[in-house]
Amino acid sequence: MRIGVPNQARDGESRVALTPEVAGRLKARELEVLVESGAGERSHITDAAFEEAGARIGSSGDALGAEIVSLVKAPSAEEIGRLQRGAVVIGFLDPLTDADTVRALASAGVTAFAMEAIPRVTRAQSMDALSSQATVAGYRAVLLAAESQDRFFPMLTTAAGTIKPATVLVLGAGVAGLQAIATARRLGAVVTGYDVRAAVREQVESLGARFLNLGVKADAEGAGGYAKELGEEEQRRQQQAMAEAIGRFDVVITTAAVPGRRAPLLVTAAAVEGMKPGSVVVDLAAATGGNCELTEPGRTVDHGDVAIIGPLDLAAEMPEHASALYARNVQALLELLVSKEGQLELNWEDEILAGACITRDGEIVHEGAKQAAGTAAAG
User: Is 343 a catalytic site residue?
Assistant: First the structure.
């Protein structure tokens, strides 16, 4: 059984779907790893490192023609056309928002597994690529904020007097938010966290941060621990209370997301206008519309001497460790797909495989993706 790893650098991706460490482990399971030349260069992994681990370096056709193809981003239309019918494809496939790709995968007759669709069950924790990449993004967001601010994060006591520590507010206490809280605390800031899910308050406080109490009664915890969208009136009350609180902070890092939906609007223009000059907003939800009303995806804008930063994929800015974590997630999934003898064994009674599968036998089988594709077609 062959596993192909295409070079996605031409599509702007800096990460690689497998690493030499994981390639060596897969070889022990009687799997042949085919890596397109240069696939790991932007993650500081040479072709020679893959070869030393037992992988074979080949062309794009070699990688895309394998029985299993492991990617980071969803394949392009041209790449989908080069996949063999019946192949297994693994990657971040955006099944709830990229209907064209989902339909193309179904038409190509491939069995596609979306890493972001893996169910949040205990047995699947080692496969949770959303969490592994969010860990990187949360860490990176704080460094970006610290670099963009012209103030110290920690309190400093010097002969010239004492400098007060920066105050940081993190909105959304999922994996990215909790990592941002922990990192900002390590840098010496006074940190406050907020989330619409009441159950995460204890997690925020366990990291040494305060929990922001807006006095808005709403608990938006959905299936699998993800946040769900608040009602219109709840959103209005939340935004109003948030606008009054935000002006007290030097840095605001927003991480709130609802799977398959536009990011919830938490920081209004009025809230930004109430912030001190020199303050910074880092919006990790920029790619899905932004948590801040003034966010421009992929850009940094200044509004009233407040910088609003809208990064599109912070995890990709730390490709070495992001790739290492992602490759281990892929390895854990492959261990469910492939027997110890290197044979493909797809057990559709397994809730993880059934939940993560987007297309198979020429059809879209994931309910959310099916609805998204139907909506897009109707539109």
Answer: no
